[in-house]
Design brief:
The complex is a heterodimer.
Chain A (H helix, E strand, L loop, with lengths): L3 H33 L1 E2 L9 E2 L3 H8 L1 H33 L5 H13 L2 H12 L6 H8 L7 H4 L1 H26 L3 H9 L4 H28 L4 H6 L11 H11 L3 H31 L1
Antiparallel strand pairs in A: 1-2
Helix pairs in contact in A: 1-13, 2-13, 3-8, 3-10, 3-12, 4-8, 5-8, 8-10, 9-10, 10-13, 12-13
Chain B lengths: L3 E10 L2 E11 L4 E5 L6 H9 L6 E6 L2 E2 L10 E4 L11 H11 L4 H14 L15 H13 L5 E5 L7 H18 L2 E6 L2 H7 L2 E6 L2 E6 L1 H6 L4 H6 L6 E4 L1 H5 L4 E4 L4 E4 L5 E10 L3 E7 L8 E6 L9 E6 L5 E3 L5 E2 L1
Parallel strand pairs in B: 3-8, 3-9, 6-7, 7-8
Antiparallel strand pairs in B: 1-2, 1-4, 4-5, 9-10, 11-12, 12-18, 13-17, 14-15, 14-17, 15-16, 18-19
Helix pairs in contact in B: 2-3, 2-4
The chains are: A mainly alpha, B alpha+beta.
Chain lengths: 290, 335
């Protein structure tokens, strides 16, 4: 049905969406690129001048930059591991028939609807606070010293908070994938003498691999830009212990008022994110083809 | 060895009693077909034997061993599922060797058995393909291959041919029958298709609503159906039933006559009727004759392929007297 006429009609009809998207992407992108080559400091307005690659040199040689990359990787990796392992286990649990299944399934998704700022504040003040927090209370109840999570294990704490928010997402996708598994396959494996663990590793996990790839892809996109949880809990600190790339760009442009270096950081982040995206798309392409 | 005995086996799902107390003996090496309309409990019965469902009460023994409490893997049975239930992410070789791997056999032994099974089933060229790249018949053979490598005491087939097209079904039917002849292992085969039952079985078990209506050889069921249900279920086209005055002449509440035991003539005969639809199959012609005085249902007659009778013709039917089946008010056979 792809006649010349219908093709041009199709192009005409999708053009508004394409133009809108292009405008939405290209204008900020070009502005960022432009700023990244300027000496642009908010404290000295009107003194912008061409700076060449100075901003990039400044950003890339900043010791905080390597910390930020490392923290970003740890954060993304940590959350992925927790959500996928936890998500698979929770999905297996929720797939069992039990009383109140419907309600529980709805409740499980709830954390996903809590805004990142809110959930981070709740975790910070109600759970992890060394004086008033629930964990401190429990520690004291069994006679232990309360642990100051955000001071002594700041990145792990943030990983925990973010993972808590994303766990329902992973659980839900993996649960639907698990439910689409043909029960006759499991029964066949049972007849073939496979124990529950063998059934899990040889039948269920391979079946879940596509869903897991999808979860990895979607979560990575969002986890590379985790920001609110850091801002309201640790502000990137102590030192640069919880500064990821996104937060570093923010700190550079709005805490140190250096928009030029911030923009350069932004461009670097875009390049890094694209490298990650290439790897992910390859992985997903391989997995979705089969 | 695969002698399977069911004693007083029942199964209920919640309040629904699917299998009322049921006794059945399956001899070693027999090809037994469970046949019945959908929802009659034949698949459930098979799953009870397989151990995929637990019996609500009663005993199952396999080879003289109590198997009621045994998990499926320990019963020494292999099952071929309706959807084949192949593992889509594994190659054919891995699919077939999976039960061997689970049993902990070494790689060399696994390969040997897989090659042997592949040879029997003409799958040698496909061993490295995935199930998704195979045709329906080939997938069916892989499923059978996965069953035979385990050298089970008995094979269980759950409507294995229902997903295949008609031509392939006939082929696979022959292949399974040949497999049974060469392996001489007990096979239990579930189907709703009475043609499959008639052509393959040593022994047919006709089920209705969980009850065993009759057990016997195919010809036994064909010649001496124990009641109306079996009479109507076995045989194709279906047996014609006539009630009322004509049946009373034979001292029965209902008489049954198979389409192939009626002769049709344009000039003379016992029963008069008008031809409705006629189905020409080439070798045979099935004529649906409306005989309003006898029964409201059209009477099916099987006749020659070349018969010159058309829609609207008035015809006369004559049953072969010794082939008339007589049933009483309860639907039981009067012999």
């Amino acid at each position: 049905m792809a006649t010349q006429h219908s093709k041009s009609a199709a192009r005409f009809m999708i053009s508004p969406a394409v133009l809108l998207l292009l405008g939405w992407m290209l204008i900020p992108l070009s502005l960022t690129l432009y700023f990244s080559f300027l000496r642009y400091n908010l404290l000295m307005p009107g003194t912008e001048e061409w700076a060449g690659f100075l901003n990039y040199r400044f950003f890339l040689t900043d010791p905080a930059f390597f910390d930020a990359i490392w923290n970003t990787l740890l954060l993304v990796g940590g959350v992925l591991v927790i959500t996928i392992v936890g998500g698979v286990l929770l999905a297996l649990l929720l797939d069992q028939p039990f009383w109140g299944q419907g309600i529980v399934r709805i409740l499980v998704i709830a954390p996903f609807f809590v805004m990142p700022t809110v959930s981070a504040l709740v975790w910070k003040n109600m759970f992890m606070n060394p004086v008033n927090g629930l964990f401190a209370f429990l520690a004291k109840a069994v006679g232990l010293e309360p642990f100051d999570f955000l001071a002594h294990a700041p990145l792990s704490s943030i990983i925990l908070i973010v993972a808590w928010g994303w766990l329902p997402f992973a659980t839900l996708i993996l649960l639907t994938a698990l439910q689409s598994l043909d029960s006759e396959q499991l029964e066949a494996a049972e007849m073939d003498g496979a124990s529950w663990l063998s059934r899990f590793f040889y039948i269920m996990l391979p079946h879940l691999s596509r869903a897991i790839t999808v979860v990895i892809l979607i979560q990575t996109i969002f986890l590379l830009s985790v920001f609110a949880e850091i801002l309201v809990t640790t502000n990137g600190g102590p030192g640069t212990a919880t500064t990821n790339l996104t937060f570093l760009v923010y700190a550079q442009s709005l805490l140190q008022f250096d928009v030029g270096a911030g923009s350069a950081g932004g461009v670097v982040a875009i390049i890094l994110a694209n490298i990650v995206a290439i790897f992910l798309m390859r992985m997903i392409g391989k997995n979705l083809d089969a | 060895m695969g002698r399977i005995i069911l004693e007083q086996v029942t199964k209920s799902f919640g309040d629904v009693n699917v299998i009322p107390p049921l006794d059945l003996e399956i001899e070693d090496g027999e090809f037994v077909v469970f046949v019945g309309p959908s929802g009659c409990g034949k698949s459930t019965l098979l799953r009870l034997i397989a151990g995929l469902e637990d019996v609500s009460s009663g005993q199952i023994s396999i080879d003289g061993r109590a198997a009621t409490e045994l998990p499926p893997a320990k019963r020494g049975l292999a099952m071929v599922f309706q959807s084949y239930a192949l593992y889509p992410h594994m190659s054919v070789r891995k699919n077939i060797s999976f039960p061997l791997k689970m049993a902990g056999l070494d790689q060399a032994e696994q390969n040997k058995r897989v090659e042997a099974a592949a040879k029997v089933l003409n799958l040698t060229d496909y061993l490295d393909r995935r199930p998704g790249q195979l045709s329906g018949g080939q997938r069916q053979r892989v499923a059978i291959g996965r069953a035979i490598v385990r050298e089970p005491a008995a094979f269980l087939f759950d409507e294995p041919l229902s997903n295949l097209d008609a031509a392939l079904r006939v082929n696979m039917r022959l292949e399974i029958s040949e497999l049974h002849n060469s392996l001489e292992t007990t096979m239990i085969y579930v189907t709703h298709d009475q043609v499959e039952a008639m052509t393959m079985a040593d022994k047919i078990v006709v089920l209705r609503a969980g009850h065993i209506e009759q057990v016997g050889t195919p010809l036994d069921l064909y010649r001496n159906p124990r009641n109306l249900f079996v009479a109507g279920f076995i045989g194709s086209p279906k047996m014609n039933f006539i009630e009322g005055a004509e049946a009373a002449k034979h001292n029965a509440a209902t008489i049954g006559i198979r389409p192939e035991h009626l002769s049709i003539s344009k000039s003379e005969g016992q029963w008069k009727g008008t031809v409705g639809v006629s189905e020409h199959l080439g070798s045979d012609t099935f004529l649906h004759v409306h005989a309003k005085d006898l029964t409201s249902e059209p009477i099916t007659v099987r006749s020659d392929g070349e018969v010159d009778i058309h829609h609207g013709d008035t015809v006369f039917l004559s049953p072969q007297d010794d082939k008339i089946h007589r049933f009483d008010k309860e639907g039981l056979r009067i012999s």
